[in-house]
Amino acid sequence: MLLRQLEYLVALARERHFARAAAACYVAQPSLSAAIRRLEHELDVPIVRRGRRYEGLTPEGEVVLAWAHRILAERDALQQELSALRGGLTGTLRLGVVPTALPVASLLTTPFCDRHPRAGVALESLSSAQITRGLAEFELDAAMTYLDDDTLRQVRRHPLYEERYVLLTPVDGPLGAAGAASWAQAATLPLCLLAPRMRNRRIIDECFAADGATAAPAIESDSVAGLYAHLPGGRWSSVISHAWLHMFGVPDGMRVVPLEGPAHGPRVGLVVSRTEPASVLAQALVTVAREARVRDALDELLHSYLGGRG
């Protein structure tokens, strides 16, 4: 059994298409198909359900796939540990990040690269479900996500910060001069918010509801960047996580207004798999996270925008 055969199987399960899997592995499709057939012969079990096209894996194939993920992860961990012994980490840290935490990912990735200049980072914006699957299948070394996600299993959690929600509104708007605003008051403004399928949106909808209000945004976006793109110009307001200020700041003509209600939202943190052997790159990122003081940095940033009011 060759590691390359296992890599082909993992690619096929991920792409669910022989041609796409072959392209992802930079080989011809007949070579990939022949390698998987050899793997079936060596293990003496059917792995792929074949028809006119790829139809999935057999029950035996699912078992082989789980072991393939584990074996390849152990191969990667061995390479990382040996590289560290030779004089520094090499390789690529695979980091998944929920979209609402992307604006602060640089608070970890930049010091990580400064400390380990021979290593790189592959950063990917993923949903919570994709992160759970990526960690379970060893396709991610670590992730930044909400720590109260019940789907996360067999992971170590390292808190980074708690989301704090504030109103971003035009200075000449109805609440532009307010010292603070209620969620019900914010709901009356022309709003631009994240889409309902986003975790952040569901959280702030709960905050609106707790104040007896319902938000009816005219514009909804599936990304923080798309949301911010609508804010300059003085027409729209938004409820944002204070973490977004790190990357996007406050557009001209707008100001940050504290919202009355819960002081903190859910916790965002770094998660890594408990599975052994541990990823050396992931452990190195955990060390950086412990020293980064992300929560303090974001709270200080918000305090500066509030002018000492929060």
Provide an overview of this structure:
The chain is an alpha/beta fold and 310 residues long. The protein is 43% helix and 20% strand. Strands 4-3-5-12-6 form a five-stranded mixed β-sheet, with helices on both faces. The longest helix is centred in the N-terminal third of the chain and has 27 residues, at 59-85. The chain is elongated and about 75 Å long. The termini are far apart. The model has no long low-confidence stretch (mean pLDDT 89).
Task: Give a brief outline of the structure.
The chain is of the alpha/beta class. Helices cover 43% and strands 20% of the residues.
> Structural class, please?
alpha/beta
Strand order within the widest beta sheet: 4-3-5-12-6
Strand content: 15-25%
Instruction: Please summarize the sheet with the most strands.
Output: 5 strands, mixed
**What best-fitting shape do the alpha-carbon axes yield?**
elongated
What percent of residues adopt helix (DSSP H or I)?
Answer: 40-55%
Q: How confident is the prediction overall: mean pLDDT?
A: 89
Number of helices: 12
DSSP strand tally: 12
Rg over alpha carbons: 23 Å
Please trace the helix and strand order, writing H or E for each element: HHHEEHEHEHEEEHEHEHEHEEHH
* Poorly predicted parts: none
Query: What is the end-to-end distance?
Result: 61 Å
